[in-house]
Please model this.
Amino acid sequence: MIYLFQILNGIGLGMLYFLLAAGLSIIFGLLQFVNFAHGAFYLLGAYLTYDLVERGVSFWIALPVATLIVAIVAGAIEALLLHRIYKLPHTFHILVTVGIALVFQELAIIIWGPIGGSVPTPDGLGGVVMLGNFVYPQYRLFTIAVTAVLAGGLWWLLEGTRVGAIVRAGSESASNMALLGYNTMRINTAVFAFGAGLAGLAGALAAPIRGVEPFMGAEALSVAFVVVVIGGMGSYTGALAAGLMIGIIQSLMTTIWPQGAQLFIYIAMAAVIAIRPRGLLGRV
Amino acid sequence: MHILDTAKVQICLALATVLLLPFVLNSGILATEILIYAMVVAACNLLLGYTGLLSFGQGIFFGLGTYVAGVLTTRWAVPIPLVLLVAVVLGGLVATAVGWFSIRRQGVYFVMLTLAFAQMFYFLAYTFSDITGGDNGLLGVPRPQIMGHVLDGPWGYYSFVAIFFLVIFAVLLVVTRSTFGRTLLAIRENEGRAAAIGFPVRLFKIEAFAISGAITALGGALHALLIGIAPLESINYHTSEMILVMTIIGGSTSLFGSVMGAGFYLLLSDTLSVIWPRWLLLLGLVLVTVALFFQRGLWGLVERGWDAFAERRKGPQKEAGDV
Model:
């Protein structure tokens, strides 16, 4: 029964990982751009939520506001800086985005202090649900529900709408899209802002569960990488499967061997890579 | 190849660095740290500049080296030369394993894998705290002795490290200029073609990884002997990031660029971190600037400066010839 409980926990965690990785994957798919600042957007989303809630703003307003601000900030960074370096080798993508991540991390320490903090469980979801003999926090069920709806919505957006078709066509051939008269620079900015917004949302949703601290970005980034590597980059269902797998493994290990819970994320990754280098559902 | 990138000039520059640092810097610890990181960064450059492999996991081997030094000296009082040998061998072996996994994917995926492995080894060190000391690290790592004399002065240990630095630098010069090194360049330039000619590309990449890992672990062990502890920070994400950043800032087209990258980073951090604890924010801006305007790093600036100088000296004749 405790395992069932942890699996439910893992699904909640895994869905947050999925949001992170989906944002990273969408950005990479369209822009061929390695975004090492992705963890910084997660950090920003979490800290903005923390800040707004501290100021007495309701969590339900803080959540969308924080997500939106992250998307706007990311869009501005893309439009002002990143589009200049797309043509450079990956080394410089990494250098610039590592630089941006450092700036965000240090700004977080300057503004909010080095200690970090916790975000109270939002109003109306402070209670628990009884599952057999176990109590389960309502907020965690809420995150599972929200991310599940988002995952469905995202899939529909990418596969079933004109906007999604444009994004997918852009990742096949950006130059053809430009020839067809699409303003690819604006599409790039929008997609980057959207992908970063997903990371910001993941951070905002995670804040009441895991709190905030200045170095949360680096950890989120490496987990997102693991999910993408396991799932297969560019595979939406792969990211979902890998996110859930990692979340569940981590939660189960928390019961079995608490110190090794984080470690097993990476062991799982090494095992998948050894058996299937392209990832679970990767095409290339 | 640029005239400054010939083996003779490079080794002279390295030797000059070793001889000049004691006159320029007051702190023997800082000078020693520069030499240690210089060899670690040069090893990273072997991967980045010469093989085209961007490894975000060099901290794994650095941390491994510090733990080898920490465990062997504090638990069993193993003699230092043996400690360094074990660090080199273990560094090479672990790098072979990490390389074997990571080069199964190419390009960006490779980078992501190396970063994920860096996290994995960090959590290994964190989890098995009865070996590594966990958050506290391992304290009381001793300095080496030479003929009964402990190198506990600031400059005595500097000389010890300087010998290693010069030997490693020379080894890397030989490696990059050997047939093996040329083949690595061929792989960097066009992997598909190198494979088509018949080179076992994966084997070459793994070998480059092993050499790089062995040197990095040696650097880690020397660093633990320098500061007297093997801290958990030496194996974390930040160490990997720092080594990579030093490599790119220095410029990946020449080995001495790596020495400059290490020196620049450590001097910057030493100066700025006293003035402002949040100096990493400035570093972030420096990285963006380097990517936008100085893509060949500090070494690129040196080459450009040299060319301008040489141009001006022989300027008139050349112009006449052109017309």
